[in-house]
Write a structure and sequence with these properties.
By secondary structure, this protein is mainly α. It has one domain (5-244). The protein is 79% helix and 0% strand. It is globular, with a radius of gyration of 17 Å.
């Protein structure tokens, strides 16, 4: 890879942030998408990022092996797979510059809807979650993760709507993305987004991913539930605004 010192440092920082997001602070990983695109060609950065995500997923599912709500994972997977297929063909038509503001607008809209749904309701009061919410958000997660590795905010919207405790929140997201990212591999390889060279770079980032995963576990144990929800909402909104511009 033709990277200077700043480029290598940026990729390493992104690996740390991804590790942290996978084990402890969901939403942090979305900030990696624009950072990687600053030091690498956009399409090339997508394939490299996918490899780093898969390595980080391994740490996440090992730590959260008992924390997933599998009903939510299974609800989301079929529409997400359909979204991956659409995203695969979309990559041949829509470029990243066109896709990013679309993703940002969708995420902000869903944050607004989720706020409206939960405003003024007691925490013990169940919030209606229609079946189409999982279908729609799963589909959007599939498209956005295939085209831009940017499904984190979409998944956050769904998990916030389900009002999961922070540990199950992170564990459910970890297992969902572990499956989804592996499903993306053949599509990405077919598009030449993942190559032997990109995998080599991913493996070089393993120490930084490990450091990030440990950091995420540290923060997850110490951050209160209310602060956790606030952090992931703020990060999702900030990332969405960034994608808009």
């Amino acid at each position: 890879m033709d990277l200077n010192f700043i480029g290598w440092a940026t990729v390493a920082l992104c690996a740390i942030m991804i590790g942290t997001s996978k084990t402890g602070i969901p939403g942090l990983g979305i900030l990696v998408v624009p950072l990687m695109a600053l030091v690498l060609p956009t399409r090339q950065s997508t394939g490299i990022l996918l490899g780093i995500l898969i390595l980080a997923d391994v740490f996440a599912i090992i730590y959260h092996r008992r924390n997933a709500r599998w009903l939510h994972v299974l609800r989301l997977l079929p529409p997400a797979l359909a979204g991956i297929v659409v995203g695969y063909f979309g990559l041949k038509i829509v470029n990243d510059r066109q896709l990013k503001p679309i993703i940002g607008a969708i995420v902000l809209l869903m944050l607004g809807i989720n706020y409206w749904r939960t405003k003024g309701k007691d925490k013990s009061t169940p919030i209606p979650s229609p079946w189409w919410l999982a279908v729609w958000l799963g589909f959007m997660a599939g498209i956005t993760t295939m085209m831009a590795n940017a499904a984190g905010p979409v998944m956050i919207i769904y998990l916030l709507a389900m009002r999961l405790p922070k540990t199950e929140f992170v564990g459910t997201a970890a297992w969902f993305f572990f499956v989804i990212n592996w499903l993306k591999v053949p599509f990405s390889a077919n598009l030449d987004l993942m190559t032997v060279e990109s995998v080599k770079l991913d493996l070089m980032m393993l120490p930084f991913i490990t450091a990030g995963a440990v950091t995420g576990i540290f923060f997850l144990k110490r951050i209160p539930q209310k602060a956790f929800i606030a952090v992931v909402q703020i990060l999702a909104a900030a990332a969405a605004i960034k994608l808009l511009f």
